[in-house]
Specification:
It is a single chain. By secondary structure, the chain is of the alpha+beta class. Helices cover about 45% and strands about 15% of the residues. Among the domains are: about 25-80; about 105-160, no CATH class. The chain contains five helices and four strands, in the order αααββαββα. A hairpin with a 2-residue loop joins strand 3 (about 140-145) and strand 4.
């Protein structure tokens, strides 16, 4: 092994150089096909021009057809070339915050089987809660002498609402 500062510096410098980008095999095959087609067309044109010229309409048609083929090949090669587009900044999607049900509207009902918390629709609307409530959760009840619809806390949670006291 060589032990010199120059060699060590060279190894460090060359190891930090960026590597050339690899060209995909598909791109190489497209370029090769375009090159072979262009070469075949050029050889055909050269072979045709080596023959003594005659003033035929047939020769003119062949020359125009050859020019059209070269144009088509050039167009296809240009169309398949990858285009460089400016990168747009990526902003990951932000999760939508679930609406919080106002805790001042919570009503606890105690029964033989335990305690349940429900929310009255009239109170929710008075508190400015204008989200669409799930109709499958609604039950009719009389609250303070007025008919109202109530929603259980568990059903509201299952529908995607945040239920419960504020956590600070």
């Amino acid at each position: 092994m060589y032990r010199s500062e120059t060699l060590a510096e060279t190894m460090v410098i060359t190891s930090n150089l960026p590597r050339p980008a690899a060209v995909p095999a598909r791109e190489i095959s497209r370029r090769l096909i375009a090159l072979v087609a262009a070469a075949a067309t050029a050889l055909g044109l050269l072979a045709g021009s080596a023959v003594p010229a005659r003033a035929d309409n047939d020769d003119l048609a062949k020359a125009l057809a050859a020019l059209a083929i070269v144009g088509i090949i050039a167009h296809q090669a240009n169309k398949n070339r990858p285009r460089v587009q400016p990168q747009q900044p990526y902003y990951p999607p932000q999760p939508a915050r679930a609406p919080r049900v106002p805790s001042v509207c919570a009503i606890e009902i105690t029964g033989n089987t335990g305690t349940a918390t429900v929310y009255g629709e009239r109170c929710l609307r008075d508190e400015g809660f204008d989200w669409r409530l799930p109709q499958h959760c609604a039950r009719t009840a009389r609250i303070y002498g007025q008919n109202d619809r109530i929603y259980s806390d568990q059903c509201l949670r299952d529908a995607g609402f945040r239920v419960g006291g504020s956590r600070y």
